[in-house]
Design goal:
InterPro entries: AAA+_ATPase, ABC_transporter-like_ATP-bd, ABC_transporter-like_CS, ABC_transporter_ATP-bind, P-loop_NTPase. This protein is of the alpha/beta class and 273 residues long. It contains 8 helices and 10 strands. The strands form 2 sheets. It has a 6-stranded mixed β-sheet, sandwiched between helices. Strands 2-1-4-5 form a 4-stranded antiparallel β-sheet, covered by helices on one side. The chain binds adenosine-5'-triphosphate.
Length: 273
Amino acid sequence: MAKIVFEDVTKTFPTKDKRSKEQFTALDGIDLEIEAGEFVVVVGPSGCGKSTLLDLLGGLTRPSSGRILLDGKPVTGPGLDRGIVFQQYALLPWRTALGNVEFGLEATGVPRRQRKQRAREFLDLVGLTGFEDRHPHELSGGMRQRVAIARSLAYDPDVLLMDEPFAALDAQTRESLQDELRRIWQRTGKTVVFITHGIEEAVYLGQKVAVMTSRPGRVKEIVPVSFGARGGGFQGEDLRSSPEFARYRHEIWALLHDEVARAQQLEKEEATV
Ligand SMILES: Nc1ncnc2c1ncn2[C@@H]1O[C@H](COP(=O)(O)OP(=O)(O)OP(=O)(O)O)[C@@H](O)[C@H]1O
């Protein structure tokens, strides 16, 4: 059985009009299977339910109907088997980089001395050796996001859930963190579910790219992405400028194009109501 299974998952919310019994459907009949160790990227137009899908998998909300299974068991709440990284760093400002990573370990019952050691190892993994004692305000945006990633990895979750983690960063920092994430994924074998607006980011990172429809969100198509030398030394600019990369980018762009137009139309209609 797959590591993660979405079975006909629907999520509705009450509409703004509290008197109305009508529900707003954010996700409708999501079926998705993710294998252990897979890197799956979810793309879709704004408001199609990407974050809702990740929140459901993180156990932060419950499906209105359908089931989400992790290792064959229904997800009923958050757990240490899943680490979540959001767009905003969500670091504790009064703690150092090391203290923030240790924080992730406190809930796991790792003894204090080992916590420090483990936190150092994970800061090293994300290239932050030498910055252990800095507070978040003394770190750049990219470094803060690295701390957040180290914190999520330190308690060794099987699954890493990432909701546009690099969206707030400048292009160069984003690309270098993409490289780092690929390296970490190859080294640790985690299952990663990653949400982005960026088609290039999706092609660069994903083994599978799930393209969603505009609201209510459904999985429109799953595009398997594989490059000849993937997993080898073929990275960075070589990969981004290859003809295969351009082909995948175009394929996903074409799948998204109509959905984005429809989402914009829906937004306009809502604004005029
Ligand atoms: N708690 C909530 N109550 C009511 N509506 C909600 C709630 N959470 C999300 N929604 C609505 O559900 C829809 C999907 O939201 P979601 O944030 O999952 O989309 P998204 O694809 O992640 O969007 P974006 O790409 O803009 O971040 C949106 O229309 C949003 O307004």
